[in-house]
Structures are given as C-alpha cells and as structure tokens.
Amino acid sequence: MATLVLKLAKIKAQIAVGDLIQHLVIAILLVLGIHLLVIYKSAVIALSDQWWWVKLYLVLTGFFLFSRFFILFFYRDKHDDGHNLERQGQEYPSVSFIIAAKDEGPMIYRSIATCLGSHYPGRMECVAIDDGSSDQTQAEMLRAQATHGEQLVKVISFDRNRGKREAMAEGILASVGEILIFVDSDSFLVPDAARHLVWHFLHNPGLGAVAGNSGVANERRNWLTRMQSARYGTSFNIFKACESVFGLVTCCPGCFSAYRRAAVLPILTAWREQMLWGTRSTFGDDRSLTNFVLRRWEVAYCRRARAITVVPERYRQFFKQQLRWKKSWVREGWEAATFIWRKHPLAAAFFYINLLLPLLGPVVVLYALIGWIVWGVSPLFFVLGVLYLSLLYGLLYFWQSRNIYWWYIAPFTLLYMLVLVWQMPYAILKLKDTSWGTR
Q: How far is CA 375 from each of CA 379, 386, 417, rounded to the nearest angstrom?
C-alpha cells in the first residue's frame, strides 16, 4: 500500500512538473510572438508609404488587439467561500431557467434536463416556451414536465410563431426566480454552471447580468465546427474577459447568460416593443437586452460557468447566422454608442475603436487588393500579419483551456477576410429586414 502511495505521488509530481514546463513554454512563445509582431507592425507603419488613413487604421487595430493581451491579466473569476450562503445559514436566491424553442425536437428535452440537473442549492424552475413549432418540440417539453414535475417545469405554447423575443418575454412574466438564466434550446449546462453565475450576483450588488462561457457541442463534426469552436473560445475567454474587467460586457449571448430580475422587469416592455425604422425588432434579442441593462448596471463574464451549444454544420446556415449577427451588431452597437461614453473612459475608448474597425474592414481589404493590382504591392504581408496575430490569440486560448482546436482560429480568420468581411456592408443595407434567416 505504501509503495502504491509513493508511486501515485511520483506520478502526480511528474504531471505537475510537466504542466509547469508547458505553461513556461507557452508563456515564452507568447512573449516572443507579441514582441515580433510589435516590431513588424511598427516597421510597416513607420517605413511603408501608405495613405494616412491606412496607417491610422493600423495604429488603432494594433492598439486594440495588443491591449487584449495585457488587460486579460487583470481578469479574475474567483469563486471562494466568501459567499457560501449555506455556511452562513442563508438561502441561495431562486433561479428560473428560460428556454424559448422552435422546431428543436428531442434536443429541448436534454436542454431542460441539464438545467434542472444543476448542482444548485437554491430553488430552481424551468420555463419552456414553444414558439409555434411544427414538430415534436411541444411534446418533448411536456415529456420533460412529466419527468420533473409541474412545479419544476412550466410549459407555454404559442399557437403560431411569434418570435424569440416574445417567447422570452412571456417566459420572464411566467417565472418567479430572482435570477433569470436564459438558455438556448440547443445548449446544455455543466452541473455547476448556475451556481458559478449566481456567485457573481452575490458578490456584486451593482451587477445586472453575467455572460456564461459557451463552448461548441459539435466541435468534432467538421472543419466549420472546429473553426467556430476556436472562434467561440477566443471570443469568450479573451474578448469578453477583457470587457468584464471594466464591468462592460456588451453582449450576454442568448445561448447561456443570467440577469438579475430587478434589472430586467423595469425595461421589459421597452425591450419587448423595440422598434427600428418603423418595424419591430425580431433579432439580436440578447445584445439588445444587454444594452438595456448596461445603461444602469454593470455586466460581467464568468469563465467558470460553462455550457456547450450546437453550432451550424453547413456553410449556408452558418453564413445566414453570421449575417443576422452582423445586423444585430450594427444596430445595437450604434445604440450602445449613445451611452457607453458615460462608462469607464478606457473601456469606452476600446468600445468605440472596436465599433469602427469592423466597419472599415471591407475598405481595408479592398485597399489591399487594389494595391496588389495597381501598385504591384502584394497583400501577402497583410494577410500573414493578421494570421500570425490570430494564432497568438489561439495560443493564449490554448493556454487557458487546452482545447486541441485552438489553431483553427487561423483558417477562421482567413474565412473572415475572404468572405465574412463582405457581409458587413450588406448587413447595413438589410437592417430593416426582420426575418430570422436560419429558419
């Protein structure tokens, strides 16, 4: 027995040493990589004969993207015993999971099951809303209700499709929880996810919403899902984490996020009836709700509150989803621009830079192509520089998660530069189109 204990201790020590070496190697690669990229960017800006607005674009992108590496080190997601209410003889606040679904079939049953299977010490309920489905979605909701009981599962059924925002609003009104956790019908929670989200509300009374950490459930399916897995990883674990440092997360994704009930009810009607150019807003519900809450509350990100969600597996569906997201980003981004200036000045500066850069993206890519055709200047240096930076982001994500698909961020970046960047001007032209796009 003693020999076995010694062997286990030796193996554990070897793993710890190996993990430490891996951390050091990745840290060295990141430091060297960032150093080389700064030198490259500085040389391009100082020595190249570019137009002034191109140099300004390079300065702003460099300032914003490099800043993520440093701000990230100020992000903290501690979950100590300081707010362990069980030890203090108090109760955890009640939680309501709200799931709106349309034509999700058996997937909705699993989603409800993972919510109610949460290791959460307080009262839980799940409000499931069938938004006029034509398949067995309603039957699966009722099956979940029969499994877990009517006190835990409430089912609301629309006789016709009224839109996700209407379904979410009805779910809010039917719920009783102090904390509202929105979950997509194809998203599945890790058992301790709800408890980690609620910890942030207990720790900070000025917090109105918390974005959870969503990964990709079907990441192994094909190249497209692996690229999305890498994109989700960098988006949540780097960009949202940096925004969270200032309490200024600009989008709590609908796949998995929580809101304080007291922050939602006063703005529920305005959010539900939001208009754009005379038409009802039917997309971008998550970013819009975040905007309404962010005006008076802080919004944070919780890395340890994990869930996985199903992403598009075919390019046609993926492109439609990206177009809908871009329309939401443009509309709600400019809406947020009207009040973000009141927030932390550094965070506000980063926000306005990040709002401007994607809008200029198509112009810069077009400039690079024209430079190749007219002046014989190869855009290869521009492309390689962007890919190199994306790999540094991927490496940073790998350092945090050990996700083997981290390097797929490079082909995703290439896909963005060649295809997705051109959706931006089209999205602006289609802002008034209220169709969902992927149904």
A: 11, 21, 21
Token pair belonging to 322: 């990206």
Q: What are 336-377's pLDDT values in tens digits?
A: 999 999 999 999 999 999 998 888 888 888 877 776 665 556
C-alpha closest to that of 285 among 254, 247, 248? 254
For 257, counting Cβ atoms within 10 Å of its Cβ (0-12 exposed, 13-18 middle, 19+ buried), the class is buried
pLDDT at 350: 94
Residues 324 and 172: their CA atoms lie apart, in Å, by 24
Which segment, 15-19, 26-30, 276-280, is predicted with the most confidence on average?
Answer: 276-280
* 36-53 tens-digit pLDDT: 666 566 656 565 666 666
Cα distance between residue 131 and residue 162, in whole Å: 6
DSSP at 373: I
pLDDT digits (tens, 9 = 90+) for 70-102: 899 899 887 765 556 555 556 789 999 999 999
Of 212, 213, 207, 249, nearest to 233 by C-alpha is 213
How far is residue 208's CA from residue 298's CA, in Å, rounded to a whole number?
A: 6
What element of type H or E holds 300? Answer: strand 298-309
The residue count of the chain comes to 439
What is the value of pTM for the model shown?
0.89
Mean pLDDT of the chain: 85
Half-sphere exposure of 24 (CA within 13 A, CB side): 6
Residue 274: exposure state from Cβ atoms within 10 A (0-12, 13-18, ≥19): buried
Q: How far is it, in rounded angstroms, from Cα 250 to Cα 243?
A: 8
CA distance 364 to 360: 6
Q: Is the pLDDT of residue 13 over 50?
A: no
**What span, in angstroms and rounded, lies between the C-alpha atoms of 296 and 408?**
38
Amino acid at 204: N
Q: Could you tell me which residues come within 8 angstroms of residue 107 by beta carbon, excluding any fewer than 6 positions away? A: 185, 186, 310
Cβ atoms of 391 and 407 within 8 Å: the answer is yes
Residue type, 164: K
Question: Is pLDDT larger for residue 9 or for residue 68?
Answer: 68
State how far the Cα of 301 lies from the Cα of 344, in Å rounded to an integer.
17
CA 172/CA 92 separation, integer angstroms? 20
As a whole number of angstroms, the distance between CA 196 and CA 211 comes to 11
For residue 306, what are the β-bridge partners?
A: 213
Instruction: Tokens for 186, please give them.
Output: 């194809």
